[in-house]
Design a protein that fits this description.
Layout (H helix, E strand, L loop, with lengths): L9 E5 L5 E5 L19 E3 L2 E7 L13 H14 L8 E10 L8 E12 L2 E10 L5 E11 L2 H11 L2 E3 L6
Antiparallel strand pairs: 1-2, 2-9, 3-4, 4-6, 5-8, 6-7, 7-8
Length: about 170
């Protein structure tokens, strides 16, 4: 139940090996299904890569007809951050660098992908890209560093979002 006493649906994300991440619906700007003003990205995970596909509408304009660069950054940050969760690394973005290759036009279907490239203690380094799904053209690339949250913070988030990794073959 939410703070308002409304039942919140849960979401399941397959990790591709039979395990599933389950969590309560939430209001994140990028992936929250309860945030009607947000991107409402549906993230997926396969073979070490987190990905999403979306078509951005005109409410995300920068220049008319062109998606705002901050939205591009948000999509890339989201898929790179979600790539950490299989390892139960809940982090904070410490650094994000984006290279914009081509303008992203409103109404174009894009695919965001993110993956881990290395981990050193509490720092996780990731890379990502945004691709035009029709042409395969790379529209933007990114590198980011995330700092793993302290255990007590992760435990609080697990409770708040009812987050869990369900083993392969476990009953729903």
């Amino acid at each position: 139940m939410s703070e308002l006493g409304v039942a919140q649906p849960s979401r399941a994300i397959s990790l591709g090996d039979g395990r599933t991440i389950e969590m309560r619906a939430h209001a994140c700007f990028a992936c929250g299904e309860l945030n009607l003003s947000g991107l409402q990205l549906r993230v997926h995970y396969q073979g070490g890569t987190c990905w999403t596909e979306t078509v951005l509408d005109s409410r995300f304009n920068g220049w008319e007809g062109i998606v705002h660069g901050g939205i591009t950054c948000a999509i890339l940050d989201e898929v790179m951050a979600w790539s950490l969760l299989e390892e139960e690394c809940w982090g904070f973005t410490a650094r994000l660098a984006v290279a914009f290759k081509r303008p992203i036009t409103v109404g174009r279907r894009v695919r965001g992908e993110g993956w881990i490239v290395r981990r050193r203690r509490r720092l996780v380094h990731t890379e990502g890209r945004l691709i035009d799904t029709a042409s395969g053209e790379v529209l933007a690339t990114a590198e980011a560093t995330y700092m793993d949250a302290p255990e007590e913070q992760k435990a609080a988030w697990r409770r708040r979002y009812d987050f869990r990794i369900v083993p392969a073959g476990a009953a729903p």
